[in-house]
Structures are given as structure tokens and as C-alpha cells.
Automatic annotation (TrEMBL):
GO MF term set: hydrolase activity
Protein name: NTP hydrolase family protein
Domain Strawberry notch AAA: start-end pairs: 392-447
InterPro entries: SAM-dependent_MTases_sf, SNO_AAA
Organism: Blastomonas natatoria
UniProt signal peptide: none
Pfam families (UniProt xref): AAA_34
Swiss-Prot/TrEMBL keywords: Hydrolase
């Protein structure tokens, strides 16, 4: 009998097509060539195997590829660093701007979700204002394609990147393979992010007036900022690009704990290449007690803004940040053991068999009729269940007309409850209905050992 072995070769998964198109565009930028709109169209058509007219790719794909190309080019370039002199940086960004097309044609999704990539020059200024240190953890809650993150990685930091768009998450994973990439709603980044992720710096350019849950809402950006601020480590620095209408005074008044505003700069027409002339606000906040008077300015001169950024106070030491609890030191003391005494064995309480009973109800083949509509709502009624002897809910319940027009499914499970909950009115009919449907869902979906059933 001959011995043999089987060798399995697993190929590395191919990168998304949009990433490969971005790599081709980045090569053009590295060679000093311009990327016109026609040039971008040709590269996209070649990589996707057809034109946008044939539905092979979209404007959204093209913009993601173009933005990622800039990120890859900037990441690899040795012509620009966060520490580059201001005049040299200005020449570099002017040259780059001249070789990029304006994103004048935008998809509905980009407009709806306000996906405007941070311009490289403004992103460089924001990261420079953050005064990043090697190996510190930087959080970007709405990372997009990585326009801000690229400067953090060039500074040698560790990255925690969050982005709600799957396409843009693919771009982040390709550009920053060592980064931790998540897909949470950034409005709740402090609530949803792993508690172990405690950044000492935050760079952010959030959506200004559109949230996942609330839709169009002018305070969306403020909620993003507050959640990111809550996650920032004590002593850390947060740099945010916010809308012009952002009320910084109101935000600071609502902050609990130490906060120091360092810079509040209205920046005009910074997003022209991204397809909008909106004025934005560059904020620099330290999570320490306020010190010097903040610098407030309005300008369209990014060179002037760079000098203001360089004049910002140095960041506080994280080790000097106050601890959450500081108890006074006490002299050591000695514990003296008391004589051991046997502990009494607690009496075992066994509930009587009659303490548990079935929640009986009648199922309605024909849904209960709707009550008269009041405004946009209907008085709530149980559409499929009648529970004998159950009390009405102590407060009026309503449901939308749309919800009320759809009858609930027929339940099957019979929950087991302590006796007297229904008879004594401790559980209303509406609350009991919720238990019935919960038990039905568990009986249907919960996997139990053979012979067991959900009760």
C-alpha cells in the first residue's frame, strides 16, 4: 500500500474590483500624470469589464476608487509628511489638486448620506493639529475611504476605523490591513464600539445633517461628535471637521468633565474638489481643563490656517490625566480574624405545584375589528388573542394606522406563569400578549435537546 499526501492550495482572495481600479489610478498619480474624468471612466470600464451605461459600475464606485487612489498615493509618497514645511506642503497639494477631477456628478446615495471625502490638504491640517505620537491609538468614527486615516498611519499610529458603507469598508481594509475596521452607526460609536478600544486621539469628519435612525436632522454632526468625545481617553485630543452652523458653545456647555477648546476655525470653500462649496469648521478639543483662550478665525487661506495649527498648545500627557477614582492613601491596617462559627444551613424553599399555571387564551381565526382612527393613530387592540379575565392596560395604548392594518400571526405556545398574575390584575392583557408571542417565537426558533420544549 503506497503512502501519499494531499496538498491543498488556497489562493488569496482577489481584492474587490474597485480596489484594483484604485491601484491603477494611484499608479497614474505616482507617475505624475493627471486623472481627468475621461481617464477615470476608461480605467473603471477596463477593470469592470464594461461601461457605467451598461450598469457594470456606478458613479459611487468611481468616486470610491478615485478617493482610494489618492489615499494609496499619499500613503506611499515620500514627498509629503505630517511634519513637512508648510510651503512645501502647499506646493504639493496644489500640484495634486491640479491633477484631480472635481466630483461634480454624485450618486443619490452619496448625496443622501453626505459622503464628501475630506480634501487631502484639509485632512493633512486636521491630522497635523492632532499632534499625533507614534504607536498611539487613533479613532476615526466615519472613516470613509481613509482620507484622514492616511495621515495617522504615516505618523506611525495604530488605527481603529469605523465606516457604515460596505464599499468604503472594503476600501479601508485594502488600504490599512493592520487597522481594526468596524461598521457601526458612528452616532453611537461610544455605545457600540468594543470597550477595550480607548483612543488617545480622534480624527473625524462626520455627516452633518443625516442620521441612520433620524434621517435629515441638523444635529446629526453634534451627536457624532458627542459620542466620539465620550470614547476619547482622558487627556486625549479630538480634531473634528464640522458644519459651519455647528454651535460649539452649546456643545461645550453640555460636556461633562474637563474640556479645552483650542481652535474654532471656519474654513471657506475647502471642499470644492469634492463637489460642494460648503463652509466647514475645524475644531480642536483637548480632554483636559481649559487653559488658554481658544483661537477663533474665519479664513479661506489654508496656509494661514496651517500656521495657526502649528501654534496650538502642546497636547497634555495622558499619564497626567485625572483618574476616575482617587482615594486618599491610608496607613496599612491589620485584620483580626473572629472565631469561626458554623453558618446555619438555609431552609430550602420548594414552590408548590399549584404556584405555576398555564396562561390560557383563545385564538381568533378572524382578526378583531379595528377601533375608530384618532388622528394618525389607532387605539391598540390584540388582533388575534382573547385572554379571559385579563385586565386592560392601565394607560391607553396606540399604534400607527399602518401597524394596526396588519393582523398578528396565530400564536401556538402556552406560557407558564405564577398563579394570580392575571386574576389579581398584575399583568395586563397587552403584557400577557407579549409573553404569548415571545413564548411562541422561542418554541419555534430555540434549539433544545430532544424531548424538551420551550415553556
Amino acid at each position: 500500500m503506497s503512502n501519499f499526501s494531499l496538498a491543498f492550495a488556497f489562493d488569496e482572495p482577489s481584492p474587490p474590483v474597485v480596489v484594483m481600479a484604485a491601484q491603477a489610478m494611484a499608479s497614474e498619480l505616482a507617475a505624475g500624470r493627471a486623472l481627468s474624468r475621461g481617464h477615470v471612466t476608461r480605467i473603471m470600464t477596463e477593470h469592470f469589464g464594461g461601461s457605467d451605461a451598461l450598469g457594470r459600475w456606478s458613479v459611487r464606485d468611481a468616486h470610491a476608487a478615485l478617493e482610494l487612489a489618492q489615499v494609496q498615493y499619499l500613503k506611499a509618497s515620500d514627498q509629503i509628511q505630517l511634519s513637512s514645511p508648510i510651503d512645501e506642503a502647499e506646493q504639493f497639494f496644489c500640484s495634486l489638486d491640479a491633477r484631480l477631477p472635481t466630483q461634480s456628478n454624485r450618486s443619490d446615495e452619496q448625496i443622501e448620506w453626505q459622503q464628501f471625502a475630506t480634501p487631502p490638504r484639509l485632512a493633512w491640517l486636521a491630522a497635523r493639529a492632532c499632534a499625533l505620537a507614534t504607536d498611539e491609538l487613533v479613532l476615526e468614527p466615519s472613516a470613509g475611504t481613509g482620507m484622514l486615516a492616511v495621515w495617522a498611519t504615516k505618523a506611525g499610529t495604530r488605527l481603529a476605523l469605523n465606516e457604515i458603507s460596505p464599499l468604503r469598508r472594503d476600501c479601508l481594509t485594502a488600504a490599512f490591513p493592520a487597522a481594526r475596521v468596524t461598521g457601526h452607526d458612528a452616532e453611537l460609536i461610544d455605545e457600540l464600539l468594543d470597550p477595550a478600544v480607548v483612543p488617545s486621539a480622534v480624527l473625524m469628519n462626520p455627516p452633518y445633517s443625516h442620521g441612520i435612525e433620524r434621517g435629515h436632522d441638523g444635529r446629526t454632526g453634534a451627536r457624532h461628535l458627542r459620542s466620539a468625545w465620550n470614547r476619547l481617553a482622558p487627556g486625549g485630543r479630538l480634531v473634528a471637521i464640522m458644519p459651519e452652523w455647528f454651535d460649539c458653545g452649546r456643545f461645550l456647555a453640555g460636556v461633562k468633565g474637563p474640556v479645552g477648546l483650542r481652535l474654532n476655525a471656519a474654513v471657506e470653500r475647502a471642499f470644492i474638489k469634492s463637489g460642494t462649496g460648503i463652509t466647514t469648521r475645524l475644531l480642536v478639543l483637548d480632554k483636559v481643563e481649559g487653559g488658554n483662550e481658544p483661537v477663533a478665525v474665519r479664513t479661506n487661506d489654508l496656509r494661514q490656517l496651517a500656521y495657526l495649527v502649528d501654534a496650538l498648545p502642546a497636547r497634555a500627557s495622558l499619564e497626567a490625566a485625572p483618574e476616575k477614582s482617587s482615594l486618599p492613601a491610608r496607613a496599612p491596617f491589620r485584620l483580626v480574624a473572629a472565631p469561626r462559627r458554623p453558618l446555619p444551613t438555609p431552609a430550602r424553599i420548594t414552590p408548590s405545584a399549584s404556584a405555576i399555571g398555564s396562561l390560557t387564551y383563545q385564538s381568533l381565526e378572524t382578526p378583531a375589528p379595528l377601533a375608530p382612527q384618532v388622528g394618525h393613530y389607532l387605539p391598540y387592540r390584540s388582533s388575534r388573542i382573547v385572554i379571559d379575565g385579563a385586565a386592560a392596560h392601565p394607560t391607553p395604548l396606540v399604534e400607527s394606522v399602518a401597524m394596526g392594518s396588519i393582523a398578528a400571526p396565530m400564536p401556538e405556545a402556552v406560557p407558564q406563569l405564577p398563579d394570580g398574575l392575571i386574576a389579581k390584575g398584575l399583568l395586563s392583557a397587552a403584557q400577557a400578549e407579549t409573553l404569548i408571542y415571545a413564548a411562541s417565537a422561542h418554541a419555534r426558533d430555540l434549539r433544545l435537546p430532544l424531548g424538551w420544549r420551550a415553556r
